[in-house]
Design goal:
about 350 residues, alpha/beta, 8-stranded mixed beta sheet, 6-stranded parallel beta sheet, 9 helices, about 25% strand
């Protein structure tokens, strides 16, 4: 029996996800079928449905929550509205895969998690990076001691988003800025390797409308390791990551958060490159998280062991603390980490 998806939101990330579902169906696994798409703009829902051959194009989200032929919802609207959309879909009895950033703050994240657990429904953050082959291999190499004890991490994610003055990331009312939308990647990368820092420093340049144009962070860990992270919406940066250890280093090619490769440079002069088996033509990599959803639902799980909800909450709490340090607030927020 196919896994029946509903897609909430009809923007570019939803299109990439839908396209990837088509491709993973060709791998001979369980079928992933998109049975419905919803948007607040009915014309966008119709256009999306026509593009991907989806039977139902729905105006508004409640109709999607009420659909009997949908098993799991992919939340792909603006992150300022994730909390309400997730609660609405869970209330309709649907499992949920929610795009990153998962929410605006930790308070919203807790509400989403509590709702899923009370409903005994699956919920996962769509942190696609976690499920990509090079990240899985990188974590295995570090765990095996390939570079010794980790002593430092350097990672950045910058995009020039001011080229589009109407971009949602420039809108303060939509939770805009570099930290939540782009910075979540280097922060998550560091968290996957070293967990939560014992302390941190953060500085930011805030735009006149209140969003952060760029934020730089230094994390310090109990082991003595450090992570130096940077994110910006004012420049297209290298988007690379380096993990240094006592016996060598790992350099991840651009863009570290998307399908990529890495090279291990040993202190003894050795070099070894991990080049994953190439994905299918046109495949972005978002489908890997759909495969994880499928695996978890088949096993009767309500959260992913690879991306536990506690991990999502930890990262959101950390970003709350960073926001407090740099003075980043959003309209209508009731606290950050309460």
């Amino acid at each position: 029996m196919p896994l029946r998806w509903g897609i909430l939101g009809a923007g570019s990330i939803a299109r990439k996800f839908a396209s990837d579902l088509r491709i993973i169906n060709q791998r001979g696994r369980i079928a992933h079928e998109i049975t419905a798409v919803s948007s607040r703009d009915e014309s966008r829902a119709n256009s999306f449905a026509n593009e991907f051959g989806i039977g139902k194009a729905l105006a508004g989200y409640q109709s999607l929550a009420n659909c009997d032929d949908v098993d799991v919802i992919y939340i792909a609207n603006v992150h300022s509205h994730h909390r309400d959309a997730v609660i609405q879909m869970l209330s309709g009895g649907k499992h949920v895969l929610c795009e990153k950033p998962f929410a605006i703050n930790a308070k919203q994240t807790r509400e989403m998690i509590e709702k899923a657990q009370s409903q005994k429904l699956f919920l996962m953050e769509a942190m696609w990076t976690r499920f990509l082959p090079h990240i899985i291999a990188l974590l295995d190499e570090i765990e095996s001691g390939a570079i010794g004890e980790v002593i430092s991490i350097d990672a950045d994610h910058g995009q020039w988003l001011y080229k589009r003055p109407d971009h949602r990331v420039l809108d303060h009312n939509l939770g805009g800025g570099a930290l939540l939308d782009l910075g979540v990647y280097p922060i998550t990368f560091a968290h996957l390797i070293l967990g939560l820092p014992a302390k941190f420093e953060a500085i930011a340049t805030l735009a006149p409308n209140g969003i952060d144009d760029q934020t730089s962070m230094i994390f310090s860990y109990p082991s003595g390791a450090t992570a130096t992270l940077h994110t910006t919406i004012k420049s297209a940066t290298g988007i690379r990551a380096v993990v240094a250890g006592t016996q060598g280093r790992i350099e991840v090619e651009r863009s570290f958060y998307a399908p990529s490769s890495f090279t291990i440079y040993g202190n003894d002069g050795s070099e070894r490159t991990f080049q994953p088996h190439p994905f299918e033509s046109g495949y972005v990599g978002l489908g890997e998280q759909a495969i994880e959803v499928e695996r978890c639902l088949e096993a009767g799980l309500i959260e992913s062991p690879m991306r536990p909800l506690a991990t999502t909450l930890e990262v959101m709490e950390l970003m709350d603390s960073i926001r407090e340090r740099i003075g980043l607030r959003y309209p209508g927020e009731i606290g950050n980490s309460d």
